[in-house]
């Protein structure tokens, strides 16, 4: 995801990278970007509470409102794009583009898809708000 986001920054499709930091070293690459603070683009790092896509969407929507952003470009794993679009769209009223980055294969892909399916059911039938 980070490589895809940095490529979009290189294409000048955005000038700010907003990073949801992991817990306990889960996202080493993004945590490293937050620690280094590159000089060719702005980096804003946060930890969502709750640590969920919905929590991330809430934080980013508040940040966008505070900064007057009218468009968000969200980069997530390809298998997660549909649910991210749904949840960010519920929290953010501006223009929203969700880009799926290729995910690694292997056994985890089955668990990721199962998790996403359950998350979509939950988002559509139980937790319908932002």
Descriptive notes:
The structure is a single chain. The protein is α/β, with parallel strands linked by helices. 48% of the residues lie in helices and 18% in strands. Helix 3 (53-67) packs across helix 4 (81-91) and helix 4 packs parallel to helix 5 (108-125). The longest helix is centred in the last third of the chain and has 18 residues, at 108-125. It starts with a helix and ends in a 5-residue tail after the last helix.
What's this, in brief?
By secondary structure, the protein is α/β, with parallel strands linked by helices. The protein contains five helices and four strands; from the N terminus they run αβαβαβαβα.
- Kindly provide the radius of gyration, computed on alpha-carbon positions and rounded to a whole number of angstroms: 15 Å
Largest sheet: 2 strands, parallel
Strand content: 15-25%
Strand order of the largest sheet: 1-2
Low-confidence segments: none
Secondary structure: number of strands: 4
Residues in helices, as a percent range: 40-55%
Helix/strand/pairing category: alpha/beta
Number of helices: 5
Distance between the termini: 23 Å
Mean pLDDT comes to: 85
What sort of overall outline do the alpha carbons produce when their principal axes are compared? globular
Secondary-structure element series: HEHEHEHEH
């Amino acid at each position: 995801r980070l490589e895809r986001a940095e490529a979009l920054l290189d294409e000048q499709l955005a000038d700010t990278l907003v990073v949801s930091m992991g817990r306990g070293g889960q996202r080493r690459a993004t945590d490293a970007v937050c620690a280094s603070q590159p000089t060719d683009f702005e980096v804003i790092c946060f930890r969502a509470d709750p640590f969920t896509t919905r929590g991330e969407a809430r934080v980013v929507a508040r940040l966008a409102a505070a900064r007057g952003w009218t468009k968000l470009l969200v980069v997530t794993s390809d298998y997660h794009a549909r649910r991210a679009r749904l949840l960010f769209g519920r929290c953010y009223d501006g223009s929203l583009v969700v880009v799926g980055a290729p995910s690694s294969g292997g056994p985890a892909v089955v668990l990721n898809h199962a998790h996403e399916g359950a998350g979509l059911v939950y988002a559509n039938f139980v937790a319908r708000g932002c």
